[in-house]
Design goal:
The structure holds two protein chains of two kinds. By secondary structure, chain A is mainly alpha-helical. Chain A contains 27 helices and five strands. The chains are: A mainly alpha, B mainly alpha.
């Protein structure tokens, strides 16, 4: 039943893509069909061309239908995932595709179900948001391509979640990567978008090769492609570690872990907003799923030093991601870098879990696992929300750069309110959901000191906790900057001054749904942890019983006396304090508020140019942590001709580059180029030399064979 | 009964906070050879501010008048979960130390946003500086608190202090480091010299004040009051974590009386020490603050590491 729902979801996603394609070429299809039926004469080419041209502008109803199917796919995925998670079992099946001796194996268990829920929520949001948002592309870009690749993208992600053999997994993985390449390259007339898409494809494929090699280790041991066979075989620790490292590289690249993150800040801003939301909110999570599936389910036998590596990578990603985010002044780029930070936090939780499990403390490992999964869910909600709201802002102001915005809270009040919800959630502030998962991660880290016997590891975990604390604080600064510069103050430009709230209600409903879930997951964390029990039981054979032992009101991961947090009571107390305050003070002549111009120091008139800019806001942070970035900062004064001491203008340029380029990618490119040049030497262009190569090769091979 | 007591303590905490900063100011004035206002002067100021009509700038949005309430509620709630003169607080189970830091962060987040809301240069400057300093101070504070959490293997403040009272205060090197770190953070986070000077309105020195320049009337009163609560909170944290003696462990009138007297004496002494420090140290340049807070972070981290290496 649930498997059927999941199939239906894949089918709905695919058919939404096909429908989009069909819609765009319906004139051509119609002509073809009529010709085939022989009912009428073939239409003259000119009218056909005209019809095809006209068809770039899809009727609105058709567009709605495409997105309705996508939404339906999301709803089905959510239903399938929810039911399967509730049932807590696994179902498997076979699809009659693939090679004759190798049908596609499908398995739908609680881990897939959880990620299918994450996917479903993201796809619903994209489906609701899409119709209004994509109207701006009408006539300029092909809606058919967007719809087709969105459908393929979603279907590919669902395929990854359902796959139960390496063959199907890799095909679905590639479908996801390649279709999202086309989505990144959608607005292809911008050179930067084409470059971003190419980089994304390149790194995606390198990652896929790493994953295939990791699969190869297990396939070689078990002589089978089926995951079922892999679960039974035992790999030696050395090969297991090799396979794990390969998988970590592959999935880590997709998840955007530093230093394999270079594609992410390029690709996310390039894609349309709802696709950015899907990529950041869902696709990065699919990478987490892949690693979880591979390490816990297929490989088994988790070693503690894997956890140490994952923890180190996660910590580095978290802190570098947020430090890069805080200095960005491009709205979507900032969000992309913040995704790296959040994936870092997820991997910190995973790393802690692996360390604990490797050391035999399963109950503590569960806290880490649950923290990671909770953050997966949370990040998929608030990052999707932020990308969608940012899409609305860009849609209304036609600007990506924060320095051109300002004052949007008055012009786009609903979007601003939703963006604020997302910002509070992602900054990890109580009582929203981001705080809960960070709190759980802290709890997992704090437990390490008392149970782990290795002093270095223990110190490492503590340092990771310290860095997580720093990350959370910088994240707050980062989102104060983003929100303050974009939404508060006075508009810095005419376009922002004339911005209006989005008119399409879907563009408000989708983020509103996500914002509501952020609040719900923040206030009722115990319910979510209860729902996660089947996953932990399936992966590790135990459940985190202590977390909700005190009822739904209390969150107590390590027992009551260790730590407790009651979000509902916090909200209640806050509401009570607020109400009391209002009751007490709203009396007397001072009750109402007087409005007046802001104090301008007597110089007459505040101008938007006096406000702090995004670059100015981040300047102290940039100065304190200067070695982190590749910064080029120049200011050239222009002086008056008559008096060289009189400065008439100042040209200021600030470029903040990613260090990983200079330290990793560019040297790597150079090595590849040198190798290519060396290899090119054997290429002489003379046929007789090539024949000689063949001859030598044949001789050598004959020698080997005999 | 204990819930009632916890509530009473929370209310008392909120009400006594202005007195603490008045007392601090009183000592400072004496030390600087000035004639001090009475220690209850902050209450008069608050009353005056509550009686005035607030002025809100035209350019401000709804965020501006809402922020003082968020800031105050977050501060008052933090006061409710920290043991003041009795250890066993049922309210401490609602929110642990990490949530406490979260409340601080929540208030600061909104205050910094409100600073940018009006669109003046000062507001943005204050927000930028405040968030920069917080991004260094907040983790240092968490680390210092984690040292306690690791020692008592709990993040529940009541349980942790109870554990300390049970074991007696052995000389723990980790606690010395953590105390040092927390003291430095407290100075930075409550806007005292040498980080910030709440008494001046100079653009070179302003951090916290710059954000709230546009506030007036009851809005300003709430923010000031929240600041006083925060100052006292740091004082109580330092006093009760590092010098926990005298805290009431059962709800008898004598024990509660001793607890109240003890915390009053400790806070009084702490205020004297703080006033002495503030009088003898000069205000720092903004970009030296990072060294100051980096040192605090290092101290707190050393506290944690020395606990892990030496004491487990």
């Amino acid at each position: 039943m649930t498997l059927f729902l999941a199939y239906a979801s894949v089918a709905a996603a695919l058919s939404s893509g096909l429908l989009a394609l069909l819609g765009e070429h319906r004139a051509a299809w119609g002509g073809l069909a009529r010709r085939a039926a022989g009912l009428i004469q073939p239409p003259i080419p000119a009218s056909l061309a005209q019809a095809a041209n006209h068809s770039r502008r899809l009727p609105h109803a058709w567009r709605r239908l495409v997105f309705a199917l996508l939404t339906a796919s999301g709803v089905l995925a959510l239903a399938a995932g929810g039911l399967q998670l509730h049932a807590g079992t696994a179902v498997s099946g076979q699809l009659p595709f693939g090679l004759p001796w190798l049908h596609w194996h499908v398995r739908f268990d609680t881990l897939s179900a959880f990620f299918l829920v994450v996917l479903g929520l993201g796809v619903i949001a994209a489906g609701v948001y899409g119709p209004g948002y994509t109207r701006q592309f009408a006539g300029q870009y092909s809606f058919g391509a967007l719809g087709l690749f969105t459908g393929l993208f979603v279907a590919g992600m669902e395929g990854v979640l359902l796959a139960d053999d390496a063959y199907f997994f890799v095909i679905a993985w590639e479908a996801m990567t390649v279709s999202s390449y086309f989505l990144v390259a959608y607005q292809h007339e911008h050179a930067s978008h084409r470059r971003a898409a190419f980089l994304y494809l390149l790194m995606g494929e390198v990652g896929a090769i790493a994953i295939i090699l990791a699969f190869g280790v297990l396939a070689a041991v078990s002589h089978s492609f089926a995951f079922d066979a892999w679960r039974d075989v035992h790999v030696t620790p050395a090969w297991g570690t090799a396979a794990f490292l390969l998988a970590l590289a592959g999935f880590g690249m997709k998840a955007g872990l530093v230093p394999l993150h270079a594609w992410l800040p390029e690709a996310h801003p390039a894609a349309p907003a709802h696709i950015s939301g899907l990529m950041s909110g869902v696709m990065l999570k699919i990478a987490v799923y892949g690693l979880l599936r591979f390490a816990f389910d297929l490989l088994g036998d988790v070693q503690w030093y894997w956890g140490a590596i994952v923890l180190g990578l996660g910590t580095g990603s978290a802190v570098l991601g947020i430090l890069y985010a805080v200095v960005q002044s491009d709205l979507k780029r900032l969000l992309a870098y913040s995704s790296i930070e959040n994936m870092g936090i997820v991997f910190m939780g995973l790393g802690l879990c692996m360390v604990f499990i490797g050391k035999g403390h399963v109950q503590l490992g569960l806290i880490g696992l649950v923290a990671a999964l909770y953050h997966v869910l949370n990040h998929s909600l608030f990052k999707n929300l932020l990308f969608l709201a940012a899409g609305s802002v860009v849609h209304q102001t036609h600007r990506h750069d924060l320095e051109h915005m300002g004052g949007l809270i008055k012009r786009m009040p609903v979007t601003a309110g939703l963006f604020l919800t997302g910002s509070v959630a992602i900054a990890g502030l109580p009582p929203l959901n981001g705080f809960v998962s960070e709190w759980l991660t802290f709890q997992a880290a704090l437990q390490a000191a008392s149970v782990i016997d290795n002093g270095i590891l223990r110190s490492m975990v503590s340092v990771a906790a310290a860095i997580l604390a720093f990350t959370a604080a910088v994240a707050a600064a980062c989102f104060v900057k983003l929100y303050g510069v974009a939404f508060l103050g006075q508009p810095r430009e005419r376009r922002s001054a004339h911005a209006r709230e989005v008119s399409h209600t879907g563009m408000l409903w989708a983020p509103a749904m996500l914002g509501g879930l952020c609040l719900l997951l923040g206030v009722l964390p115990t319910w979510v942890l209860d729902a996660m029990r089947p996953i932990t039981r399936q992966l590790l054979g135990e459940t985190l019983t202590s977390a909700s032992a005190q009822g739904w009101l209390w969150l107590t991961p390590g027992g009551v006396s260790t730590a407790s947090y009651s979000a509902p009571l916090v909200v209640l107390a806050m509401a009570l304090a607020w109400w009391l305050l209002r009751r007490l003070e709203h009396r007397g002549p001072a009750a109402d508020v007087r409005h007046a111009p802001a104090w301008d120091c007597g110089f007459g008139g505040l101008s938007p140019r006096m406000q702090y800019t995004a670059a100015a806001f981040a300047q102290p942070v940039r100065r304190i942590f200067a070695p982190v970035w590749d910064t080029v900062e120049t200011s050239a004064p222009e002086t008056a001709a008559a008096n060289p001491l009189q400065v008439t203008a100042l040209r200021y340029r600030l470029e903040i580059g990613d260090r990983s380029w200079r330290w990793l990618y560019l040297p790597l490119t150079r090595v590849v180029e040198d190798l290519a040049r060396l290899t090119a030497r054997i290429q002489t262009g003379q046929v007789r030399i090539y024949i000689a190569y063949s001859f030598v090769t044949l001789i050598v091979l004959l020698g080997v064979v005999s | 009964m204990d819930w009632l007591l916890a509530l009473a303590q929370a209310v008392l905490f909120t009400l006594l906070a202005p007195l603490f900063s008045g007392w601090l100011k009183w000592i400072k004035c004496l030390l600087q050879n000035r004639r001090p206002p009475p220690p209850w002067q902050p209450y008069r100021d608050l009353r005056k501010l509550f009686g005035k009509r607030p002025v809100v700038a035209d350019t401000a949005s709804w965020l501006f008048p809402v922020t003082p309430y968020v800031v105050f509620c977050a501060a008052a709630l933090s006061g409710a979960i920290v043991p003041f003169f009795a250890v066993d607080l049922p309210t401490a189970a609602i929110a642990d130390m990490i949530v406490l830091v979260g409340f601080f962060a929540l208030g600061r987040f909104f205050l910094a946003l409100a600073g940018m809301d009006v669109g003046t240069a000062f507001g943005g400057m204050g927000s930028s500086r405040e968030m920069t300093i917080a991004s260094l101070a907040e983790p240092a504070m968490l680390m210092a608190i984690f040292t306690l959490a690791l020692t008592a293997s709990t993040t529940n403040i009541s349980v942790a202090i109870d554990y300390l009272l049970d074991t007696g205060l052995a000389l723990r090197p980790s606690f010395l480091f953590a105390l040092g770190g927390l003291l430095l953070v407290a100075v930075a986070e409550t806007g005292r010299i040498p980080i910030d000077n709440p008494a001046t309105h100079l653009e070179l020195t302003m951090i916290h004040e710059a954000m709230i320049l546009e506030y007036s009337g009851r809005h300003l009163a709430l923010i000031e009051w929240a600041g006083q609560i925060r100052l006292m909170l740091y004082g109580v944290l330092i006093a009760n974590i590092f010098l926990p003696w005298g805290l009431a462990r059962e709800f008898t009138p004598e024990a509660l009386g001793i607890g109240a007297a003890a915390i009053a004496a400790k806070l009084g002494a702490l205020a004297v020490a703080l006033a002495l420090a503030e009088t003898s140290v000069a205000k720092m340049r903004l970009f030296r603050v990072q060294e100051f807070l980096g040192f605090a972070y290092l101290l707190s981290l050393l506290g944690m590491l020395s606990h892990i290496i030496l004491e487990v």
